[in-house]
Amino acid sequence: MEYNTLLQIAKDYGSPLYVYDAEKIKFQYKRLISAFGKVKQLKLNYAMKALSNISVLKLFNQLGTGLDTVSIQEVQLGLKAGFKPEQIIFTPNGVSLAEIEKAASFGVQINIDNLSVLEQFGTKHPETPVCIRINPHVMAGANTNISVGHIDSKFGISIHQIPHLLRIVENTKMNINGIHMHTGSDILDIDVFLYASEILFDTAKNFKNLEFIDFGSGFKVPYKLGDIETNIEELGEKLSIRFNEFCKDYGKPLTLAFEPGKFLVSEAGYFLTKVNVVKQTTSTVFAQVDSGFNHLIRPMLYGSQHEIINISNPNGRERFYSVVGYICETDTFANNRRINEITEDDILAFKNAGAYCYSMASNYNSRYRPAEVLWYDKKAHLIRKQETFDDILHNQIEIDL
């Protein structure tokens, strides 16, 4: 999006503010479709935990994706957005059997990742098709918080437990229609991903009624100029060939499924903040903005870098700033970052703010969560109002003391 457009949106709707570019979302979706164009049956399930605004979900429904959900509330949001139950996969971790049964009652695809629940669910509902999430014991992902396929991970059923898994399936006579894995986010080494895929193919041979194989996602996007990213075109070429070979050996065509989240929405998002104060200390120049890690926690939680552009002065002389928020503890978005000269009331745009940004926002310090805008068909559409004081009090109960 052009900086002037973002500035006008900030003027119209205030700050802090999240803005999402629908055209970028569509572009990323088409990239994935094209990369795996040699696969006859491809299904992309948008991982809605990345960004779950109902208008964004409706956009994905319009594009033709399915949905990857991790909670019963996400399932209900997906249905509310117009997705059909068969377009939704439910992949929780550590939830109760009751929650899984509730999801199954809606008719969505169930994905189970532990032996205990698999046995309980299979005993009670042997007729319900179930996907099994396998832990391939392959380390992938750039941060330990988002690497989920290694041996110490809480996610998935270990490949070393396959004999036990098969015994449960045989004893319950349950219907296994899919095999799934997810190694982690920010995958860079395609060979590591392909190695994990071979483990999944070997596991799939144990099941005769599969309809799909789900390879998760975790594709890395660039966070700054010159940053490395997953070569999705190379992965698409290599995995498509291997998948087609497997389907031939398996004896019937299967669906290749992915669950992209960050890849589809990260680069489409901008977080706009206003500079309240430029503060010079003995060693640092701080740009203090009207937000904090209550709105964008990723730099504090993951150490992630978001490129910051002064869209009020994009061609100004570059200086070094530490960009910090208004939360009353260490609240740093960027340390000693080179940014075009900043003055008070300038608007700063944080890039790559589409994934895991608003969805992880909170009311810490009793601050309001910001508004959201979707730039669609060359128009700005308000898709979530900024919260008010009434929202802070909503559901609180005052008692007489």
UniProtKB/TrEMBL annotation:
<comment type="similarity">
    <text>Belongs to the Orn/Lys/Arg decarboxylase class-II family. LysA subfamily.</text>
</comment>
<dbReference type="InterPro" id="IPR022644">
    <property type="entry name" value="De-COase2_N"/>
</dbReference>
<keyword id="KW-0456">Lyase</keyword>
<dbReference type="InterPro" id="IPR000183">
    <property type="entry name" value="Orn/DAP/Arg_de-COase"/>
</dbReference>
<comment type="subunit">
    <text>Homodimer.</text>
</comment>
<dbReference type="InterPro" id="IPR029066">
    <property type="entry name" value="PLP-binding_barrel"/>
</dbReference>
<dbReference type="GO" id="GO:0009089">
    <property type="term" value="P:lysine biosynthetic process via diaminopimelate"/>
</dbReference>
<feature type="binding site">
    <location>
        <position position="298"/>
    </location>
    <ligand>
        <name>substrate</name>
    </ligand>
</feature>
<dbReference type="InterPro" id="IPR002986">
    <property type="entry name" value="DAP_deCOOHase_LysA"/>
</dbReference>
<keyword id="KW-0457">Lysine biosynthesis</keyword>
<keyword id="KW-0663">Pyridoxal phosphate</keyword>
<comment type="pathway">
    <text>Amino-acid biosynthesis; L-lysine biosynthesis via DAP pathway; L-lysine from DL-2,6-diaminopimelate: step 1/1.</text>
</comment>
<dbReference type="GO" id="GO:0030170">
    <property type="term" value="F:pyridoxal phosphate binding"/>
</dbReference>
<feature type="binding site">
    <location>
        <position position="218"/>
    </location>
    <ligand>
        <name>pyridoxal 5'-phosphate</name>
    </ligand>
</feature>
<feature type="binding site">
    <location>
        <position position="329"/>
    </location>
    <ligand>
        <name>substrate</name>
    </ligand>
</feature>
<protein>
    <recommendedName>
        <fullName>Diaminopimelate decarboxylase</fullName>
        <ecNumber>4.1.1.20</ecNumber>
    </recommendedName>
</protein>
<dbReference type="Pfam" id="PF00278">
    <property type="entry name" value="Orn_DAP_Arg_deC"/>
</dbReference>
<feature type="active site" description="Proton donor">
    <location>
        <position position="328"/>
    </location>
</feature>
<feature type="modified residue" description="N6-(pyridoxal phosphate)lysine">
    <location>
        <position position="49"/>
    </location>
</feature>
<feature type="binding site">
    <location>
        <position position="302"/>
    </location>
    <ligand>
        <name>substrate</name>
    </ligand>
</feature>
<dbReference type="InterPro" id="IPR009006">
    <property type="entry name" value="Ala_racemase/Decarboxylase_C"/>
</dbReference>
<keyword id="KW-0028">Amino-acid biosynthesis</keyword>
<feature type="binding site">
    <location>
        <position position="356"/>
    </location>
    <ligand>
        <name>substrate</name>
    </ligand>
</feature>
<feature type="domain" description="Orn/DAP/Arg decarboxylase 2 N-terminal">
    <location>
        <begin position="24"/>
        <end position="266"/>
    </location>
</feature>
<dbReference type="GO" id="GO:0008836">
    <property type="term" value="F:diaminopimelate decarboxylase activity"/>
</dbReference>
<dbReference type="InterPro" id="IPR022643">
    <property type="entry name" value="De-COase2_C"/>
</dbReference>
<dbReference type="Pfam" id="PF02784">
    <property type="entry name" value="Orn_Arg_deC_N"/>
</dbReference>
<feature type="binding site">
    <location>
        <position position="356"/>
    </location>
    <ligand>
        <name>pyridoxal 5'-phosphate</name>
    </ligand>
</feature>
<feature type="domain" description="Orn/DAP/Arg decarboxylase 2 C-terminal">
    <location>
        <begin position="18"/>
        <end position="354"/>
    </location>
</feature>
<comment type="function">
    <text>Specifically catalyzes the decarboxylation of meso-diaminopimelate (meso-DAP) to L-lysine.</text>
</comment>
<keyword id="KW-0210">Decarboxylase</keyword>
